[in-house]
Write a structure and sequence with these properties.
Oligomer: single chain
Distance between the termini: 71 Å
Shape: flat
Order of helices and strands: HHHH
Number of helices: 4
Strand content: under 5%
Largest sheet: none
Helix content: 55-70%
Number of strands: 0
Length: 255
């Protein structure tokens, strides 16, 4: 378990580096720029051309020295490979942070604009009430308030319209399914009577000319209503792909 003193020591060390903003009490913003220091030259890994490894040791000390040399070369090669991996990860992290900064900037811009301007003068600064700039802000504020109110009213009407249409569709569908089920029941009863009469005529060796009863065409399924709402129109005008949750009906009732 890491002691709190060690954590504080690490934080103190980070505060003296280019990553000090990570441990700062202030929240990170899109203006925060972390310096990853990725521009470091690393020489390529080359196969050793030294002939020192091919030396045939003649004494015990030479054996130990040659073994130590080989171990040192292997350790250096491993460390260099690790440095390459760390630098590659650092470059990828810098690219990822750049993407996140862009997303954060977009989020901050949306948050700054907001859905509607609830305050005309929210920064506490004095205003010249008869100035052109203030008048334009008043006009823009009133237009935004009317637009937000109109959007809320339109969405409410759309929800009520959709709910009413869906309720009527379900009522008609239930009525259709009930009627089709009654037709099937009557058909099965008629078919059983016809089958029994045919079997009886065959047993009595009498001619049986009564045609086989048919079910006939059932009432087809009523398409689920697709009502264009205010949000659907906005999504369509923005070029976004529409995902309709109302698609799909039950399987055909015909047999």
């Amino acid at each position: 378990m890491v002691a709190s003193s060690e954590i504080e020591s690490v934080i103190q060390q980070l505060q003296n580096t280019t990553l000090s903003e990570l441990v700062s009490a202030n929240p990170l913003t899109s203006e925060t720029h972390l310096k990853h220091n990725t521009a470091r030259f690393i020489s390529p890994i080359k196969k050793s051309q030294s002939t020192s490894h091919d030396v045939q040791p003649k004494t015990a000390n030479e054996v130990l020295l040659l073994a130590s040399l080989r171990n040192a070369d292997a350790a250096n090669a491993s460390l260099k490979q690790r440095v390459l991996e760390l630098q590659a990860a650092n470059i990828l992290n810098e690219m990822y942070c750049t993407v996140l900064r862009g997303q954060l900037a977009n989020y901050e811009e949306k948050k700054k604009k907001g859905k509607g301007k609830g305050k005309l003068m929210g920064d506490g600064l004095p205003r010249f009430l008869s100035g052109d700039e203030f008048y334009e802000r008043v006009v823009e504020f009133e237009q935004d308030q009317r637009r937000v109110s109109e959007e809320k009213r339109t969405r409410k009407e759309d929800r009520e319209k959709r709910a009413g249409a869906i309720a009527e569709w379900k009522r008609l569908e239930d009525k259709r399914k009930t009627e089709n089920q009654d037709r099937r029941t009557r058909y099965r009863a008629t078919l059983e009577t016809w089958t029994a009469a045919k079997a009886r005529a065959k047993a009595e060796k009498q001619k049986f000319d009564e045609p086989k009863p048919l079910l006939g065409k059932l009432i087809p399924a009523i398409p689920r209503p697709k009502i264009s709402t205010y949000d659907d129109e906005r999504a369509g005008s923005s070029g976004e792909e529409e995902f309709n949750l109302d698609e799909g009906t039950d399987a055909s009732d015909e047999e």
